[in-house]
Amino acid sequence: MKLIQESLAWLTGTLIALASTAGVAAPNPVEIKDDLGQTTRWSKPPQRIITLLPSLTETVCELGACDKLVGVDRYSNFPAQVNRLPKLGGLDDTQVETIVSLKPDVVLLAPSSRVSDRLRSLGLTVVTLESRSYADVQRVLNTLGQLLQISDAQAIWRRIDASVGAAAQSIPPQARGTLVYYEIDRSPYAAGPSSFMGETLTRLGGRNIISAEMGPFPKISPEYVVRAQPQLIMIGKRNVDGLYQRPGWDRIPAIANKRVCVFDAEQSDVMARPGPRMGEAAQIMARCLRELGSSNSKAAHP
């Protein structure tokens, strides 16, 4: 009799357990194809993540996985909590040995990274992602959402898009059509209309001196800027030294009228990162256009 009772108790417990799990599906494996065509398969979200690009760091955190980061590149500084993580260098001095020692489930990096092949040869899983345009940002959000098994990663994009739209609504009619040169490096490299920066400028009603066929971030000659005669220049503080002394640039309307928006280091970081803070970048750019894009605006000195 005791044996029968024990058997019935076991059977009852088993049935209860089966009932409690009924309808709970096992996680579906996820297949990720990155920007180099490399495919990885995941049965569950990675728990130890390394990012080697600030925009990827910010996107992972915005998706709610900041606590899964175990290391970041030297330039990742937002949100503030990532500053407590090991900094793993930049493009030219990535600390491969330290990365390996951190035992990441995945390393997220850009195609420009020089260590992806070496990391793969050491047995690490690498996912390569790049964002140069609005469409790229949406795609990267979707890919990382799949990887992290976030159900609605595109909600972040909708917030970005709404914020850019609000910035566009704030531009007065007299500032629309302002001819703009956006310098991202004193070489000089410019933000073209097909870049995320250029797309923001277009949405805000500005006109870019760079033509679309020149690409997202073309290297141009100083003479090109002189010939283009921009009415407004956008530039980071780290590149502004000597701007007013460049040969021939005193003939540029933006220089002659001192219509130059100089972004500080924090603003420059926001402007240069294609990710969750693009709406904030649009607000910064809109403020520049409102203050200096109008023919009635006051001159601003760097």
- Our estimate of the beta-strand percent is 5-15%
* Largest beta-sheet details: 5 strands, mixed
- Count of runs of 4 or more consecutive helical residues: 11
User: What is the CATH topology descriptor of the largest domain?
Assistant: Rossmann fold
Tally of domains? 2
Intertermini distance:
93 Å
| Structural class estimated from helices and strands | alpha/beta
Describe the structure.
- There is one protein chain.
- By secondary structure, the chain is of the alpha/beta class.
- Helix content is 38%, strand content 14%.
- It has helices spanning 2-21, 54-62, 96-101, 116-121, 134-148, 154-169, 196-203, 222-228, 253-256, 265-272, 278-292, and strands at 30-33, 39-42, 49-51, 69-72, 106-109, 126-128, 179-185, 189-190, 207-208, 232-236, 260-263.
- Residues 1-26 and 296-302 have low confidence and may be disordered.
Keywords:
Rossmann fold; 4-stranded parallel β-sheet; globular; alpha/beta; 302 residues; single chain; disordered C terminus; 5-stranded mixed β-sheet; 2 domains
In a nutshell, what does this entry contain?
This protein is α/β, with parallel strands linked by helices. The protein is 38% helix and 14% strand.
Secondary structure layout plus pairing:
Layout: H1 2-21, E1 30-33, E2 39-42, E3 49-51, H2 54-62, E4 69-72, H3 96-101, E5 106-109, H4 116-121, E6 126-128, H5 134-148, H6 154-169, E7 179-185, E8 189-190, H7 196-203, E9 207-208, H8 222-228, E10 232-236, H9 253-256, E11 260-263, H10 265-272, H11 278-292
Parallel strand pairs: 3-4, 3-5, 5-6, 7-9, 7-10, 10-11
Antiparallel strand pairs: 1-2, 7-8
Helix pairs in contact: 6-11, 10-11
